[in-house]
Protein: Magnesium transporter
Amino acid sequence: MTRTRAYRNGVLEAEDFPPEELSTYLRDTGVTVWLDLCAPGEADLAVVSEELGLHRLAVEDAVSEHQRSKLDRYDTHSFLTAWGVRLENGVLAADEVDAFITERALVTVRKSEDFDIEAVVARWDSAAELAKSGVGFLVHGLLDYVVDGYFEAVQSLDDQIEGLEDSVFADKVDHRDMQRRSLHLRKSLVKLRRVVLPMREVVNSLMRRDVGLADETMTPYFQDVYDHVLRASEWTESLRDLVTTIRETQLAIQGNRLNIIMKKLTGWAAIIAVPTAITGFYGQNVPYPGYDQWWGFIVSTAAIVVIAGALYVLFKRRDWL
Structure:
């Protein structure tokens, strides 16, 4: 599946033309083209590589998977790797997208259809007045969509963490569910951190003047994307710390509750030890005072009640029960 576009002097001129016509459009210095490929093989990229003179290493990176977010610079073009993120049933999923950036062409390579390229196209159409900036305009729309996805993901994770935080102090807590949710949130935040942190360096590199991508018009927009990346990375770091704090708080609360339970059990054990000791003495084959007499039974019973009651009052005053 391929998508193509051609802009002439900032105006959309053609769309969905064959990739073989790239060189025809690029003969005109006023034309900027975009080509999108979904899950291509080396043979599919061979045509584009020949048309644009792409470096062999960049083509290999575009075909292989699990690349780190990065920006590689070659003599005639740059190669960009980024990750779009989304939440599926509360679990973070990431989709890799690569891009070949030349002076007047942008080629995006998606590893799967899960990366919504139509949303990127919609961003370009919503800011058509910036299309005169050429490839910089196209790259900005792509990065803006990716970074906004980071914000949506981190906001959703923040909401989940707030719910987890509220359940920590509930009267009845499902500790197994709490552990499972904490683990899933931490894994999602670690995965998000791995794709967000390198993007700071990527966007910063694209803004450099020697790259020649961001002109005077697009520089503020790239700066805005860079600020969003910084905020997303800082937010992600704070949420990771918060999840760790919640988990430590949960363990501390569990420890405190266990101590309270043990304190109460110990207090009741001390109270129960009184009648056990007294009746144990009378169970021996020794004629204690009151042995085989009604008054002996009454005295021993009264001693049990008085001593146990005194211990109960004492422990209650000290908040042991």
Summary: DSSP finds eight helices and seven strands in the chain.
